[in-house]
Amino acid sequence: MVAKKRRLPRYHTEIAWLLLLLLWVCTLWINDVTPKPLTVIWFASLVVFPIYGLVVAFFRRNYALGCFSLITPFVWVILFCVVVFVFGFSEEGPIWERGYPAKSPSEQSQNQ
């Protein structure tokens, strides 16, 4: 008797993708004024959803889902770096207004 190889149904892949994307979207609204229960749910989801995604990726042999599941716990760091890169902390304004690479102070004084 040959053991039949078990594979998860396809809908598990779609559910895993939706849950991980939901985490990325919800991360934008998790802040200091978010109610405590929602923050706890978000942190719990940040652990459970990527594990579910990794299990589905393993059984479905879906490498893209596996990679996305591995970087999802670092979603807040990734989004923070993107926001700081685009908007920055300085008064110079967004990166598209000041040019890249940023001009040195001597170059800025020559242009004025």
TrEMBL record:
Q: What keywords were assigned to this record?
A: Membrane, Transmembrane, Transmembrane helix
Q: Which residues cross the membrane?
A: 40-59, 66-89
Report the domain of life of the source organism: Bacteria
Do the record's keywords include Transmembrane helix? yes
Q: What is this protein called?
A: Uncharacterized protein
Species this protein is from: Corynebacterium uterequi
